[in-house]
Amino acid sequence: MSESRSLVVHRTLDEHIRPLLPRTRAVVLGCAVAVLVLIALVCAIVSSDIGRVALSAAIVVATASALLAGTCYRLREVRRRRGNLLRKRHDEEADKERAQLPPRETITRRFRVSLSGMTIGLLGLAAAAVIGYSTSDSPQAGSWYVVAALLGIVFTALSFVAATYGRPLD
Q1: Burial of 19 from C-beta contacts in 10 A (0-12 / 13-18 / 19+)
Q2: Most buried of 56, 71, 73, 150 (most Cβ within 10 A)?
Q3: Which comes out higher in pLDDT, residue 103 or 123?
Q4: At 46, which helix (H) or strand (E)?
């Protein structure tokens, strides 16, 4: 059992996350397709041009930021695991490898910026839903704004979760 642990410790960071690369392409492509489908749905169900633009922009900002936040979260986890394994070795080579890991502060800043973008996008979705519902001619037309905003929120959450599944963007 100790041999298998030592084999894991001697892998470089790129070797550690290389198997995740094909999944990452699929995740990013899947999220992009899902967002395009959602924007097409918004254009089909929302009658106002301003409402379409507001909802589409908020969806793009929220989902793109969620995708970046998810990759930053994954990068933080990979860095933490790799750093813990290298700290156990107590040799000069491990110290050199640990110095090549992305700094925690950089990861934290990226994560905060992407969370801020995600929050702005989600607030934009909520504002578009409220304004669209209150200014629409009929309750049915107003409810489509709410449906589109809720779908945008769901897709944002799914983008975050999907991004934690792939290779971190560093």
Answers
A1: exposed
A2: 71
A3: 123
A4: none
